[in-house]
Design goal:
The chain contains eight helices and five strands. With 195 residues, the chain is α/β, with parallel strands linked by helices. The protein has a three-stranded parallel β-sheet with strand order 1-2-5, with helices on one face. It has a two-stranded antiparallel ribbon with strand order 3-4.
């Protein structure tokens, strides 16, 4: 609906039918060809279109149980990644016997699917220890920081610039805690809207 209002070409592609080049089924490049056809074979409109990759999660969950070639899994993922990151895809107009180059850098790709188990992955990632700004600190670190801070307060040589820096550090820590709480809420809401 929004694509029609914006006058932008859009296609929805079922990723379960995609295969590696050379195998029976649709090549990954066919999603760009379908967008080109939806755009009335207009290259400029195609390069600013929208491709919805439906059932994308199924590519990752395919397991080869019979020892044969993986024609719809990892190879398709790698080919899709090249297109999503931005590459040039060649399309052929058989009626005019011409080939055209389509740049995918400005095409909007939307991924959809059930993504079963995503909520567990998010829980595992947010529950684990991490490094960097705003990373959770153990109580031991907080106690050491408080002791050091009080020792500095008691010392007579504590300068105004150090006091200002300590104040800014405390403010930044509070902001990071607030951001972390908001991020957890957003991730929680996102998990339930995708299920």
């Amino acid at each position: 609906m929004a694509a029609r209002l914006l006058d932008v070409p859009m296609v929805v592609c079922d990723c379960t039918s995609l295969t590696q080049a050379g195998y029976v089924g649709e090549d990954v490049e066919s999603v760009v060809v379908r967008l080109w056809q939806s755009a009335g074979q207009d290259i400029k409109r195609t390069e600013q279109g929208i491709i919805v990759l439906d059932e994308l999660d199924k590519l990752a969950s395919k397991r080869n149980k019979h020892g044969g070639k993986d024609i719809g899994g990892e190879g398709v993922q790698q080919s899709l990644l090249k297109i999503v990151e931005g590459t040039t895809v060649t399309v052929t107009d058989r009626a005019k016997n011409k080939t055209y180059q389509i740049d995918t850098r400005n095409i909007l790709f939307l991924a959809s699917g059930a993504f079963i188990g995503l909520d567990q992955i998010i829980k595992r990632r947010t529950g684990s220890k991490s490094l960097g700004f705003g990373a959770p600190m153990s109580d031991e670190h907080y106690l050491k920081a408080q002791i050091m801070e009080e020792e500095k307060k008691d010392s007579a040589d504590l300068t105004e610039s150090r006091k200002d820096r300590l104040k800014k550090i405390r403010e930044t820590e509070e902001k990071n805690k607030t951001k972390d709480r908001l991020l957890v809420q957003v991730e929680h809401v996102t998990c339930w809207t995708t299920v």
